[in-house]
Amino acid sequence: MKIPRIFIFLLAATGSFLEASSLISAYIFGFTLPFIGILMEALGTTFSLVIPIFGISVFTTTYRQRKPFDLKNLVLREAKPQDADEIHEVLKQAFKGLEGRGYSTLAINAAIIDAKEIRKRILSGGHVLVAELDNEIIGTVTGFKEHQSMHIYSLAVSPKYQGCGVARQLMTYLERIASKEGCNKLFLHTAWVMMEAIKLYESLGYVREGYLRRHFYGEDFIIFSKLIERGNSRCKA
Ligand SMILES: CC(C)(COP(=O)(O)OP(=O)(O)OC[C@H]1O[C@@H](n2cnc3c(N)ncnc32)[C@H](O)[C@@H]1OP(=O)(O)O)[C@@H](O)C(=O)NCCC(=O)NCCS
Description:
Elements (H helix, E strand, L loop, with lengths): L4 H28 L1 H29 L12 E4 L5 H13 L8 H7 L3 H9 L3 E7 L2 E11 L2 E9 L8 H15 L4 E7 L3 H9 L3 E10 L2 E9 L10
Parallel strand pairs: 4-5
Antiparallel strand pairs: 1-2, 2-3, 3-4, 5-7, 6-7
Helix pairs in contact: 1-2, 3-5
The structure holds coenzyme A.
């Protein structure tokens, strides 16, 4: 969850305002009614200190800081068979990062498809996309056109480059391809533990369409989908 900076600013401003007014009232009432003066001062201090501290702690624990990578040289393209080993490495690093979240090792290993399978996907006409930065493949996603829908698989970004917008760009690029190929819809399966991916899909306009119990090596899966509005895609060419 992102807390807007303006919210934190308003909390701090409210606290400061209350502190100032309590000081004034403490000054006014302090001479005649000391009890009211002390009470007002205590209230003001509470508001001026506790609320901003609470707000800032919420902000720092929930706001994901962007990492300082310059993505202006990022290239998005269809993969070539010779990219398969590098793509496998990206999948390995990204999915291994999900270990310890309650997602089974069997399911993690199954998601890390090998280079041979990746090559097969490329050669069989799948849209295996890569994000490349300074000649290094740092992200990937695959789309297969099925009955005028685009089935999305294997979205992954190298841990070092996560949080910079690479996956968003890959998904947007794939959506553009799907739209050009006349697809009506994009869909994918994901697991509950993949919170970052779920946030990404929802922020891109995907909705939960179904629920698959014990679907993938015993893991429950959610089906996400997005309809492509003809001539009104969010993606810009
Ligand atoms: C899921 C994954 C591909 C996201 O890649 P990414 O390049 O880091 O994602 P982006 O930087 O493009 O983030 C896009 C959106 O995703 C969400 N998101 C991504 N990482 C997040 C995080 N750590 N915390 C909260 N939201 C996050 C946010 O909505 C973000 O939008 P914002 O930056 O405007 O807030 C990456 O975390 C990954 O490889 N995970 C392991 C493999 C995996 O889960 N694949 C999905 C299989 S279904």
